[in-house]
Amino acid sequence: MKKFAILTSGGDCPGLNAVIRAVVVRSAVHHAEVMGIRAGWRGLVFPDTMKLTRARVDTILNQGGTILGMSRFSPYHTPNGPERLMQNVKDWNLDAVIAVGGDGTLTLAKRLKDEYGLNVVGVPKTIDNDVAATDETFGFDTAVAIATEAIDRLRTTAEAHERVIVVEVMGRDAGWIAAAAGLAGGAELILVPERPAVLKDIINTVRRWHRMGRVSSLIVVAEGALVSETGAGPAENVLLNKQPDHMGRPRFGGVGAYLAKEIETACGVETRVTVLGHVQRGGTPTARDRVLATRLGSYAADLAGEGRFGTMAALRGTEIVGVTLEEAVGKKKHLDPRLYDVASSFFE
Ligand code: F6P
């Protein structure tokens, strides 16, 4: 009997439990049992594990979050972290570690493979949809569905009060959620990091809308959208929150409030902001995310079973394939300009 371990690391997203279930079930085909590692890499450095049986995972497919818990812990940020991790892998007779995470997690997986020979297989997850080498990550579809529903709801209240409503969505420095939800919700304007905007142009647009009789509107702004005062200075949004997270990455948020205030002051129209925040990451995954997560989890078990380490399960077109971690990490998959162009062709 072989022994695999699975961990979920980084920020949670809907579909993680579907992956865990798929890995446990499919690993049986490879005569492997699966051990759950709690709280991401931390549980592999400071032993924190849980038994994963078929019975334990049978009912988790539709549950949000992760039964394993998450952390943004890096073994490299604790004394002898990688050495302790490798010792546990040896002591627990692990044949493979399946790491489910975004760019940070997958980067750590690659580094541990390169520097310590860890037998690791990756599964990409994030609502941001920004992992390279896969056409889509699970969690994204759910986040877009939640954001779209919110936009629909905000539209009726915007119309009732003849207001501008600015909706800030997540996505870090990629505009996937904003573009997809903005398109699906018929937003009058969508601001994304990939298309830096100038404040005075946005203000002029809102003024024009009012002149032409459009008294209510929805503006979707990605948390990482770049909005500069004049077009000459630095982008404003990241400057609003200088405190990085504990992985040293910038924290996003604040651009929606900034825009709403500027629009109201300059245009004299009532403007409100709604920040969707972690609502986008919670709750039950969509059917599409359950399917994608299950396919990726099953394939990751196959990669582990076949000893194809240093790889990641990925969606390419309609196929699930194995790609190298090398192909996946260290580069962002930014918003497809064609998606933004379709969405923006409805702007006036
Ligand atoms: O990467 C997923 C994500 O939800 C981003 O969209 C967001 O910027 C970030 O995580 C929030 O992180 P935290 O959960 O640590 O606040």
Give a topology summary.
Blueprint: E1 2-8, H1 16-27, E2 32-37, H2 42-45, E3 49-51, H3 54-57, H4 81-91, E4 96-101, H5 103-116, E5 120-124, H6 140-161, E6 164-169, H7 176-184, E7 189-191, E8 197-198, H8 199-211, E9 217-222, E10 227-228, H9 255-267, E11 271-275, H10 287-305, E12 311-316, E13 319-324, H11 325-328, H12 337-344
Parallel strand pairs: 1-2, 1-4, 4-5, 5-12, 6-9, 6-11, 7-9, 8-10
Antiparallel strand pairs: 2-3, 12-13
Bound molecules: 6-O-phosphono-beta-D-fructofuranose.
Architecture overview:
- By secondary structure, the chain is α/β, with parallel strands linked by helices.
- 38% of the residues lie in helices and 18% in strands.
- The protein has twelve helices and 13 strands.
- The strands form three sheets. It has a seven-stranded mixed sheet with strand order 3-2-1-4-5-12-13, sandwiched between helices. The protein has a four-stranded parallel sheet with strand order 7-9-6-11, sandwiched between helices. A two-stranded parallel sheet has the order 8-10.
- Strand 4, helix 5 (103-116) and strand 5 (120-124) form a beta-alpha-beta unit.
- Helix 7 (176-184) runs parallel beside helix 12 (337-344).
- The radius of gyration is 22 Å and the shape is elongated.
- The model has no long low-confidence stretch (mean pLDDT 95).
